[in-house]
Amino acid sequence: MTRIFSGIKPTGHLTLGNYLGAVRRWAEVDQFRADSLFSIVDLHALTVDHDPGRVRRLSRQAATLLLASGIDPERATVFVQSHVDEHARLSYLLECVATDGEMRRMIQYKEKSVLERARGGSVRLSLLTYPVLMAADILAYDADEVPVGEDQTQHVELTRDLAVRFNQRYGQTFVVPRATPPKVAARVMDLQDPTSKMGKSHEAGAGIVYLLDEPDVIRKKIMRAVTDSGSEIVFDPESKPGVSNLLEILASCQVGNPEALSGAYESYGALKKDTADAVVELLRPVQQRHKELVADPGYLEEVLRRGAERARGMAKPTVDGAYRAIGLLPPV
Ligand code: TYM
Question: Quaternary state and partners of this protein (predicted)?
Answer without folding.
Answer: Homodimer.
